[in-house]
Amino acid sequence: MNKTSVRLPIVERDEWLRPVESEMNLRWERYRRKAGEILDSAGSLADYANGYRYFGWQWDDTLDGWWLREWLPGAYDVFVFGDFNNWQRTEIRMQRDAAGVWSAFFPAAMYRDRLTHGSLYKLHVHGPNGWMDRIPAYARRVVQDDATKNYTAQFWAPAEPFDWQGDAFDASAIGDLLIYEAHVGMAQESEGVGTYREFADKILPIIKRDGYNAVQLMAIAEHPYYGSFGYHVSSFFAPSSRFGTPEELKELIRRAHELGLAVIMDLVHAHYVKNLNEGINELDGTDRHYSLPGEAGNQPYWDSKLFDYGKPEVQHFLLSNVKYWLDEFHFDGFRFDGVTSMLYHHHGYVDFDCRERFFDTGVNTDAITYLTLANRLVHEFRPSAVTIAEDVSGMPGICIPVDDGGIGFDYRLGMAIPDFWIRYLKEVPDEEWNIWEMWSVMTGRLPEVKTVAYAESHDQALVGDKTLAFRLMDKEMYFHMDRASDNLLVDRGMALHKMIRLMTISTGGQAYLNFMGNEFGHPEWIDFPREGNGWSYAHARRQWSLADNGFLRYSWLGDFDRAMIALVREFGVLSDGYPWNLAMDEQNKTMVFSHGPLLFVFNWHPTASIPDYELPVQGPGNYVPVLSTDEKRFGGQERQDMSGEHFSFDIIDDNGARWPRIRIYNTARTATVFVRK
Questions:
Q1: How far is residue 158's CA from residue 160's CA, in Å, rounded to a whole number?
Q2: What whole-number distance in Å separates Cα of residue 39 and Cα of residue 61?
Q3: Cα(51)–Cα(44) distance, integer angstroms
Q4: CB 231 within 8 A of CB 279
Q5: Which of 284, 390, 491, 630 is catalytic?
Q6: Percentage of the chain with pLDDT > 90?
Q7: Residue 72 predicted with pLDDT over 90
Q8: Crossing angle, helix 365-381 and helix 21-42, to 10 degrees?
Q9: In the predicted structure, residue 1 carries a pLDDT above the cut 70
């Protein structure tokens, strides 16, 4: 037991955790001890996470000048150089304190006309790995030279700070999360790199129109290789300059808030890029600066470096980074990438086949402590902010509040759902689809673990994988997506594309996510410019015109997605919790379930359309169809009368109990939603 001899609420509520109660208590005690140290030293977690207000460039009113500070404990000597001193590497020496923090002061009287907004600079670091020109870890802007392709830090001090006045957006007021996952650079139709401004002007209105209430932005922190999708971060405090300026990102977020959209950042704290020229690897000359030394500091599966979450300075760096994006850019929360890799020394590459897997020596206890602190910081500093964990392992407590003994995430990504759909489409013929297995995968989550359901994300759209639309229709999408074309493969693909999405959103979780363009069946994969494709941007963009073209079927899929999102919002389907299972007809591949007044009927059978199909309903009344995947406005045949009403009648069982039922035309490969009146 813990010191107070009171059982943690997480253990009290979950009998499965009773055999490992001592391990849960140890986990809680490690967090409690670290949090206590922070509170004793700084007063609060938010005040502790102010590294971005101390390191990097900081103005000193008293001394009338700029300080530059960087934590480089292993360095022998450090200099600052840049265009303000004609790139003389060893002219301006920094001074070291006892904690390994190096600093230099630039009095305004001497540097006012030389160190100006937009000036370029680097550090010249002498360490165990020799003399190297490096970019500071706390750089807030890093730019690439078009000719040399080299990255350089940029002194960023606009004359007027960004005006956030009037931005009082509260993400908790938007209701159930409907997330539009997006990448700023590839969001435009033209071949090239899109900008923050273009995204604000062109893409935010699309997201708002489609009914989503949150946008999840990928690849925000600076990364040297565009094709990494932003997952090999080099500068954690610098928004990517390839998309525009920090102020333009702030304007994007403010515009989103004005539209009622929350903005969630895809935060990468699971690893960092190996690069010495651009990143923080061996920044002080040692291999134990932000990482553990030797192989323990490597992420072997991702060709990147791991953070040493147990080192106080690294915890401070990462927690300061969390607060920085909330404070300076008004993000409304984070999707923490690679949480499974963080939680385990084996990075999740084992079978989680027993309870002990979550508590053995493979668990990275320092990472659990860090993530718990990060969640507490987010929720204390911005109570309305949300945190989402990308964890495939199912770590106990991942979505349990910190005060109850959990790690504190609000949501976990339902990663088993897209894996299931892909497996079925690849391996199982339509007529063999098991509706009980479908139901189990969609609803197989713990009651306290709030899940973000999704049929596919950016992961399924990359080269080497396929989107659902491409798996369903493949090359036929190039020849038979015009509305006048007859093609059975496309007809099947259109029907299942709509059904899979409706099934996922109505049964899979308490929030929903879609990757941009997938809602209308974007026909092609994502392939960033690289040597293998001739540095082409042809597949690093979104062809919005396909969905706007009234002669193509893509618009039907887009129209269905909008209608589906509108229905889910109107009736609070996501917040209704688990769907209520009313019937499972394996022979006819038909499942019936309800959410409040809504009745969902899914007929997955490829051919069986059944007139006067009798099915149970949640209560007496008349049932009116409000949405069907088979409607003509969505490219279907509308075999069911959408204006008809279905009046319930009672079946009396042997005990005299009355069970209401209705009869419908149960058409093959169709999902229909009725409302009870």
A1: 5
A2: 28
A3: 14
A4: no
A5: 390
A6: 96
A7: yes
A8: 50
A9: no
> CB of 516 within 8 A of CB of 203?
yes
Dist CA 347 CA 494 (whole Å): 37
Instruction: Give dist(CA 189, CA 141) in Å, integer.
Output: 27
- Rounded to whole angstroms, the Cα distance separating 291 from 310 reads 10
Give residue 654's pLDDT.
86
In angstroms, the CA 158 to CA 12 distance is 53
Placement of tokens 């900081």 in the chain: 58
Average pLDDT over residues 208-237: 97
Q: At 503, list the tokens.
A: 């099934």
* pLDDT for the residue 21: 97
CA–CA separation, 491 vs 488, rounded Å? 5
Whether this model's pTM surpasses 0.85: yes
567 dihedral zone (left: phi>0; alpha: psi -120 to 50; beta): alpha
Could you say which of 198, 210, 266, 337 is catalytic? Answer: 337
For residue 655, is it left (φ>0), alpha (ψ between -120 and 50) or beta? alpha
Identify whether 15 is a catalytic site residue: no
Residue 3 in this model has a pLDDT that exceeds 80: no
β-sheet bridge partners, residue 651: 659
pLDDT of residue 2: 45
Residue 412 CA to residue 335 CA, distance in Å, equals 9
pLDDT averaged over every residue in the chain:
96
DSSP 630-658: T-GGGTS---S-TT--EE-EEEE-TTS-E
Residue 466 has pLDDT above 90, yes or no: no
pLDDT in the model for residue 6 = 87
Residue 428 CB: number of other CB atoms within 10 A? 12
How does residue 155 score in pLDDT terms, banded at 50, 70 and 90? very high
Strands 622-628 and 580-585: unpaired
Identify the pLDDT of residue 462.
83
Q: What is the pLDDT of residue 465?
A: 81
324-335: average pLDDT: 98
CB contact set of 168 (below 8 Å; sequence gap of 6+): none
Q: Decide if 215 contacts 179 (C-beta within 8 A).
A: yes
**Residues 598 and 674 sit within 8 Å (Cβ to Cβ):** yes
- pLDDT tens readout for residues 76-85: 999 999 999 9
Identify whether the C-beta of residue 357 lies closer than 8 Å to the C-beta of residue 345. no
Distance CA 589, CA 605 (A): 5
Q: Do the strands 65-71 and 101-107 form a parallel or antiparallel pair, or are they unpaired?
A: antiparallel
DSSP 570-629: HHTTGGG-S-EEEEEETTTTEEEEEETTEEEEEE--SS--EEEEEEE-SSSSEEEEEEET
Annotate 506-566 with DSSP letters as a single string.
Answer: HHS-SEEEEETTGGGT--S-BB---GGGTS--TBSS--HHHHH-TTBTHHHHHHHHHHHHH
Distances in Å between the Cα of 97 and the Cα atoms of 70, 100, 287, 554 are 11, 6, 21, 62
Choose among 279, 278, 274, 368: nearest CA to 315: 368
Beta-carbon count within 10 A of 191 CB: 12
**Residue 351 annotated among the catalytic residues of the structure:** no
Q: In what order do the strands lie in the sheet with 65-71?
A: 56-60, 65-71, 101-107, 95-96
What local confidence, expressed as pLDDT, does residue 5 receive?
66
Residue range 274-278: average pLDDT? 95
CB 177 within 8 A of CB 410: no
Q: What is the mean pLDDT of residues 595-624?
A: 97
Task: Determine contact, residues 312/244, Cβ cutoff 8 Å.
Answer: no
Neighbour count for residue 418 (Cβ, 10 Å) = 22
Polymer length in residues for the chain = 677
